[in-house]
Design goal:
The structure holds 2 protein chains of 2 kinds. Chain A has 10 helices and 12 strands. By secondary structure, chain A is of the alpha/beta class. Chain A folds into 2 domains: 215 residues, P-loop containing nucleotide triphosphate hydrolases (Rossmann fold, 3-Layer(aba) Sandwich), CATH 3.40.50; 59 residues, Alpha-Beta Plaits (2-Layer Sandwich). Chain A has a 6-stranded mixed sheet with strand order 5-6-7-3-8-9, with helices on both faces. Chain A has a 3-stranded antiparallel sheet with strand order 2-1-4, with helices on one face. A 3-stranded antiparallel sheet of chain A has the order 11-10-12, with no helix packed on it. Chain A is elongated and about 80 Å long. By secondary structure, chain B is mostly helical. Chain B has 2 domains: 91 residues, D-Maltodextrin-Binding Protein, domain 2 (3-Layer(aba) Sandwich), CATH 3.40.190; 231 residues, no CATH class. In chain B, β3 and β4 form a beta hairpin. Classes of the chains: A alpha/beta, B mainly alpha.
């Protein structure tokens, strides 16, 4: 076993997990620095939850090794970790503030202190009146917030959230994003999995894209986007002229509109050629590719389509 | 280890308060009243029926003098033998001794089971085959006694303390009673553990628990919460039972004393109940943890109850065989050990063996918990191809 590096909140080396002989996670290497917001991006069934469960010590990998806050036995670091599982679960007969305190008590926070903090946190999140209600009396969104507060009540150094935005309406998604940023500002490491690219794009400094149990990309969001060249959207009055040599030969116009990848030579030579070659520019925009485009390029079209479908289903659930 | 105990306490406290402060716990406490009520009702009904069946009247169609002699003889014998032992007799003054008249009387008088006619020296009993067979011996006894000269004998009695054989018999009775209490309580209460993890699995809480605390702590906590609940129930039931017994009054000195003395025997009863509960409970918890739905738990209940019965039969059969191989097996086999040991406490006065037995039972409980946790992690939480590659000892030890 190799010694872990102390600057990493998470360190996984070649971890493998098989279910019934099929690899759900297939040799993942992952390091996550302390104090960052890290997103694990991938469609449902890609291996996100299995990876997180292995990192947390809920299940053991079949092969490889993992360290959580430097420890090879993740459960021993539980007092410093907060975890929100994908499938939310609370005791239905517990009072809301008690549920928060119980989750804190599991991770070493004295029950009385947990109850005090639980009430205060619920007040801070506008749920003060629900503090004494049983979980079964709360709406789904409220119960989800209670569980999230239970994840944070013991002031963990590392927070792991599995699909935290799933099932939340737009308002609560915004609240959650602010909460994640606030935790990161305090120096807490936040790791979350999602199949909604926009959340990762807005929140994360670093991401890992996971598809078919492997991680084809891990790095900064900007690095993922830089893998693709900017896209040019051009509208011209003329359809032919000497300026055409500045546009890729295989680019065909749609009426008077042209869409193509910015040539390696950059913007200036293109602009000069268009002006000097009398293209008659009606409009010109150069767009930097989004994370979605990067995801398609990295994970493949099939994975991207699946993730879009998952996100659409999720939105459907929220509306329902 | 300290963390496991701390975490187990968190789970135990949650479960214990959730059970104790639930409305259903009140019904749990009332539970023993139902069989008691049913028992009393069934007993009353049964005794009424048996009274009606046993209320047999034999008509006497002898001459007046012999008939009165027979009734006086019956009255004398009843004082020694009890009224149930002899049939009720009723003199039939207006009946002829002719067979058709007797048969007609038996047909018309439904309360009569048979009619005695003839003379005391040559009595004739008429009735159905069953009734005649039932009463012929006793009617013969009555007639013979009535014909003989009555003589009164006074029996002198001398009372001494317990003899060796009576003491042994009494301790055996205590052993049987102690074991019966232990078996009954374990049977009623241990099965409840079977469904103990279903709530966590149904409500997806198990994921939160598994990520926060060692799985051993979850199992231990649940087990001790249920044990606590069982002990609360037993305390309430025994307090009510003792109060009723004190109110009704009774000869407490007549209770056969166990070999280790009553105070230590009562303590051992509690300890062995706890161990029996923990042993069987940990096994049931492990089995129940494999089930994902209440229906699966219900399906598992039957074989589990049968298994319990086998263990009880083993312990029960060993009561009278102290020191024999079967009794030693019952003592050493962990699941029957508490029952066999409480029987020993009633019949043997050495105390050290109970310390050893309790340690042995405690160690085995931990082994079962470890094993259950391993199975749970592997089969339910879907963990550890790697764990499967470890040696059995390493798995059991949780290394």
């Amino acid at each position: 076993m190799h010694a872990p590096h102390s600057e990493f909140a998470i360190e996984a080396r070649n971890i493998v997990k098989r279910f019934d002989g099929e690899a759900a996670v297939d040799g993942i290497d992952l390091t996550i620095e302390k104090g960052s917001i890290f997103g694990i991006l991938g469609p449902n069934g890609a291996g996100k939850t299995t990876t997180l469960r292995m990192l947390l010590g809920i299940i053991d990998p079949d092969e490889g090794e993992r360290f959580l806050l430097g420890s090879p036995e993740p459960i021993s670091m539980a007092h410093q970790v907060g975890y929100l599982p994908e499938e939310r679960g609370l005791y239905p007969s517990m009072k809301a503030f008690d549920a928060i305190a119980f989750m804190g008590a599991l991770r070493g926070l004295p029950l009385a202190e947990g109850r005090k903090r639980g009430r205060a946190m619920m007040e801070d999140h506008g749920l003060g009146e629900a503090a004494d209600k049983q979980i079964r009396q709360l709406s789904k969104g409220m119960a989800q917030t209670v569980q999230l507060l239970g994840t944070l009540v013991h002031d963990p150094d590392l927070i792991i959230l599995d699909e935290p935005f799933s099932g939340l309406d737009a308002l609560n998604q915004g609240k959650l994003e602010r909460l994640i940023r606030a935790q990161a500002d305090r120096g807490v490491t936040v790791i979350f999995s999602t199949h909604v690219i926009a959340h990762a794009e807005r929140l994360c400094e670093e991401i890992a894209i996971i598809a078919d149990g492997k991680i084809p990309f891990k790095g900064k969001v900007s690095e993922a986007r830089d893998r693709l060249r900017p896209q040019v959207h051009l509208e011209t009055r003329n359809l032919d002229g000497p300026w055409r040599t500045a546009i890729p030969a295989d680019c065909k116009p749609l009426g008077h509109n042209w869409h193509f990848t910015l040539p390696e030579s950059g913007v200036e030579p293109l602009l000069n050629a268009l002006v000097e070659g009398d293209a008659g520019i009606e409009s010109l925009s150069i767009e930097r590719p989004g994370l979605h485009d990067a995801f398609v390029q990295i994970a493949g079209d099939a994975a991207a389509r699946k993730m879009d479908a998952d996100a659409a289903n999720n939105n459907g659930d929220e509306r329902a | 280890m300290i963390e496991t105990i701390r975490a187990a306490f968190v789970i135990a406290r949650r479960d214990f308060t959730a059970i104790i402060f639930s409305k259903s716990f009140f019904f749990f406490l009332l539970g023993p009243l139902f069989p008691l009520g049913i028992g009393v009702a069934a007993g009353g009904l049964g005794s009424q029926v048996s009274q009606e069946i046993d209320n047999s009247v034999v008509g006497v169609a002898l001459n007046q003098e012999e008939a009165e002699t027979l009734l006086a003889t019956r009255a004398r014998l009843v004082r020694s033998l009890g009224s149930k032992s002899l049939p009720e007799l009723i003199i039939l003054p207006d009946i002829s001794a002719q067979e058709p008249d007797i048969i007609a009387k038996l047909d018309s008088e439904k309360s009569l089971t048979a009619i005695l006619s003839g003379t005391l020296a040559a009595p004739v009993l008429t009735g159905s085959a069953g009734d005649v067979k039932r009463w012929q011996g006793k009617i013969t006894l009555l007639a013979e006694t009535a014909l003989s000269r009555p003589a009164t004998v006074n029996l002198e009695t001398r009372l001494i303390g317990q003899t060796g054989s009576s003491s042994e018999r009494n301790q055996l009775m205590t052993a049987q009673a102690g074991q019966a209490i232990l078996i009954l309580l374990t049977m009623i209460l241990a099965g409840m553990v079977l469904s103990n993890l279903v709530e966590e699995k149904t409500n997806k809480i198990i994921e939160i628990l598994a990520a926060a605390i060692p799985m051993d702590a979850i199992f231990l906590g649940k087990l001790f919460a249920m044990l606590g609940m069982a002990l609360v129930g037993i305390t309430v039931w025994s307090t009510v039972g003792l109060s009723v017994a004190l109110l009704v009054g009774g000869n407490w000195n007549a209770l056969p004393s166990p070999a280790v003395g009553w105070p230590f025997f009562c303590l051992l009863l509690i300890l062995y109940f706890s161990m029996a509960y923990l042993l069987l409970g940990s096994l049931f918890l492990g089995i129940g943890a494999m089930a994902t739905t209440v229906r699966e738990v219900q399906t598992l209940s039957m074989p589990v109850t049968m298994g319990q019965l086998l263990v009880f039969f083993l312990a029960y059969s060993a009561i009278t065989k102290l020191g024999e191989p079967i009794e030693w097996f019952a003592v050493l086999f962990p699941f029957s050990s508490p029952f066999a040991m409480i029987a020993r406490a009633a019949q043997m006065d050495n105390i050290w063996q109970h310390g050893l037995a309790l340690i042995w039972q405690g160690v085995f409980t931990m082994v079962i918990i470890r094993f259950s946790v391993m199975l749970f992690r592997r089969n339910v939480m879907k963990s550890g191809q790697a764990a499967r590659k470890k040696s059995l000892f390493a798995r059991v030890a949780g290394k």
